[in-house]
Amino acid sequence: MPRYCAFFGSINVGGNRITMADLRYAFEREEFENVETVVASGNVLFDFDEQPTDGLEDLFSHMMLDRFDIRSFVAVRSAAEVLSAVEDNPFTGIGQDHLVHTMFLERQPDEAAFERMVADHAGRGPEKMALGKRALYIDYIDAAGSSKLTGAFIERRLGGRGKARNVRSLARIHSKM
C-alpha cells in the first residue's frame, strides 16, 4: 500500500497545542493505516490505497478544526514527492540543511507570480528562491526565524497557502516512509 506524509501547519505553535498521540488517534479514527508521527510539529505518515487528492487535504484540515479547534493548512505528499523535495531542491548540499527549506504549496503558482515575488523581496534579505512542482525551494542563508521572507509574504504573492520543512527534516521523514 502506498505511503504518504501529511504536513500540518499551525501545530504546536501560537497556542495550538496537540499531542502527537491525539493526532495519530484522529487518523486512526478516520481508518487510515500504519499511522506514525515524526517530530512534534505535525508530520503524519500513513498508508492509503489511493492517490491523494485535494479532498484528502481538505479532510485533514476539517478533522483538525472539528476535533481540535485548530485551523490548519495540510499538504499531503507521497514518499516519492518527499524525496523529490530534498533531491530537486537546488540548494540542497550547497546551503546548510537546517536553513534550506522546501515549502509545499497548495497549488502550482505561475512563473510570473514567482518572478514578482522575487522582485518584491529584492533588497529585503539574502535568501535565494527557486520554483519547483507545487513547491518553493528556499535557502534562508542566515536564519529562517528572523527572515523577512515569511510564510505570509510568500502566500500573499503566490496566491495560495504553503507549509515548509527544512531538508534535514524531510530526509528524516523520508527515511521512515
Automatic annotation (TrEMBL):
InterPro entries: DUF1697. This is DUF1697 domain-containing protein. It comes from Novosphingobium silvae.
